[in-house]
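input
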Amino acid sequence: MIKVLQVLGTVDLGGAESRVMDLYRHMDRDKICFDFLVTEGTGDYYKKEIESLGGSVY
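output
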């Protein structure tokens, strides 16, 4: 499995965050896993969905 770290300011509703989530929802998560490093620590709109898809938010 390939693990990819996505580095974003937040996992809130925004342009880059929404695009990454579109990709994450439709990719083969048995082959690729996204984890998210949040640099600002505010906004967690996608946090529960990320975790339900197998990713982690740090």
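quick obs: The chain has one domain: 2-52.
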